[in-house]
């Protein structure tokens, strides 16, 4: 190959200011000379002969004219044949490759070395027919083995000569010196590296442009020019600098052909360059600042632009098909059917009815195609692992809309593309590459005016279903468990069904299971455990012959992730802490025996010295030596246990009571969170119970979908937890701390069956001091009033449970005695609402479900630590308290509250008005909509409550907090006017607010848990709060002491009160009517 350096001025060129010295490749020296009609290339001459012959006859014909059937030794040779020899994409042309001498061992007819191949996908194939000879066909000229007695056209090859004879084929007519002609255009190869903008400007200075590629044969021609060049890339004129999702040529917008490299174009933004070498002709997206060689293009002198004659395209679609905007196609979605297909099955379905899977070439089309369902196949795939994505209909890939981070070809098995639902968390119809074997819905396209063929028969599923709902495949049965549970619970569930957690022993089995779970978007437990050295074992004893780990998995962030789950989204496996709660897959195989789940029996045994037993566990409190969380876990493991997990309120109460005896330091427990993921117990137990400090209650819900991508270079962020000794936030509550702080800790181990269990529950019969309080359990069973008198006889009160420790202590005593305990709550004794009888308000509650009950006034603690109301005459044990704390002082306000009478006939409701300052309040535990609540209050001469200041806010919050376990919020008297302003129904100025969230709804409510205000639909059902001014005592009047006068005065007062109530009720009803009218749709008549 020879090169000439063209400096300063080139023949037929006036200006070269942008190029100081350009390297161009000339073809004459490398091609040699050939007599017409032979075409020179790379020291050889080629001739396409259009007569039909068998392979042997074709070889004889070539040899008669001094050559042989053509051999192809490089991508350049291949590209030359399909772009310059006269070959057309519809041809089938014999070449010199065959395996006639030895089956499967192909050789060239001219005995040259086989150093390059370009087989069609799936070729050569195994067949009963003897296919020893090879031809090229299709747009890319790929190779196919065929029977040698078939008749086809052929191409001959011979050596070129070094000197011309004058009868050579004229080439590059109409092109400047150094330019090469293909059809109507001339191309110029520049090897001096420049950035994309510089190359574009330089081509313009030649009155040309960076080359565009309109079809495959043009791409092949360029490969024949640069394919074996030492440079790795050459710029062509394609770019997506303006819009990452859309590629355009520098000289025009329309893209009619693309030839992307592996994983291209993906989520890359930049400029496009053609590769050279083994994979020459593929396109990469590179930074536009890279300096590369480049290819310029211009119209040949005397050549005219080829105009394609207009073709008539029908503008109608078959029934139930929709026109695809800016295209010649109609589309139809097949996602609504229950049938789901793999990508290839979906493509074949579309082709069977006369179309193909849909291709998308603009954002407008994307908006039309994107599905309302989970996911759907489109026609994009990468069937050849050595090239990039292509549309199945052969159209160019110039527009894309990938999900962030996609395509990623995870585990090198994802080569087909799905479009995600529009309201999915991926959103906006983004594209995602997945396994082609996944089953999805799909969308077909068909040319306008074409009537679709009848639908092909349904593809039978790869599995069958048994009568009891198990899925049968290949001698195995599977059950998909859609209840979230820990690995231990999941395995017990499977064993109860005479099975075990699934073992996966082949890729086919993995694909089957993935398709069964792919619509659920969760992690599913499988029966694999993995050790810290990454050794894996199937729980059912199956050999580990197949694995499908996620990228960077297994990965031990906290050295306690020993269980494995499969992702329903990616099919890949993640190692997790065994306490996470996921779905699961059970499996049973024919001929395999499964051990049935044993009944749950608490282990028998005792605890070592200095350990305390509760249920089947032994606990040890270490509060005299501090350690980090990791150090504490190491110490606990050294003693045969782990940092403690807390699985119930009873365990929490036990630990709280125990730690209060020496509350000197916070104590580490085994709860931890990694990288903001849900909390879990390091010993692998499920998180069944939590006791976070109040300000952490909404910090994070325990839900788990997908383990995030792991970046080994990114530091792990951990959150560790202690049982707190802080009195203000609550002794025993769980608080977050840096894992590197040094604290005491609590260890947990199983009971030892070799140690006798001789520990009995401790019952304290004397007063037990805790901070400012002392408690005593009265084991004598008596009524609530008798219990009250008993405590008072000892200078105490029935217990007020004003903090977490007091609640835990009462719980433990009730549990140890196996009996409920009366406490100091009786609303009949405190004015009809719940307040501790020693004068303290309820600042913390523990009501059981559906408590407190109407008609019952006295309260006890049950064995689960919950509060329940009961008959005050019922006999049970009780809890007394002596305290140095002083209850709050209550201001006295004049006036009394009215007697409650239910507005409903024959009602059994029992409510009492509760006084606060100058008003009385009624908390009605009956759910109605806002309007009915307003009317109900009006019938009582009241209104839905307004809230005027923080003290009133706190009073209402305290009283509705009692019901927070059962009701999320209560109606109050706020409503939104037509102008969007909030008003109180009793006309109180809205000069104090406590909004949490205010949506577009029209009625106001107060949250039972935190007291914040929110808006809701007036049609929602909630309990409500009424408010009425206190009734002031009548001033003494001087009247004659006659019966008639007294009767008259009484009648007048009664009449006045009655009239006032009626007028108030009418006013409220009018407001309600106005509010409803404002917000109801209006009908306008003209």
From TrEMBL:
Gene3D superfamilies noted in UniProt: Mannose-Binding Protein A, subunit A
UniProt key word Transmembrane: yes
Lineage: Eukaryota, Metazoa, Chordata, Craniata, Vertebrata
Keywords tagged on the record: Disulfide bond, Membrane, Transmembrane, Transmembrane helix
Pfam family, one: Lectin_C
PANTHER family on file: MANNOSE, PHOSPHOLIPASE, LECTIN RECEPTOR RELATED
PROSITE patterns attached to this UniProt entry: C_TYPE_LECTIN_1, C_TYPE_LECTIN_2
Species in which this protein is naturally found: Takifugu bimaculatus
Source organism superkingdom: Eukaryota
SUPFAM superfamilies registered for this protein in UniProt: C-type lectin-like
Signal sequence extent: none
Domain C-type lectin: 41-157, 182-297, 326-445, 473-587, 614-748, 770-881, 916-1027
Ranges that cross the membrane: 1053-1075
Protein name as it appears in the record: C-type lectin domain-containing protein
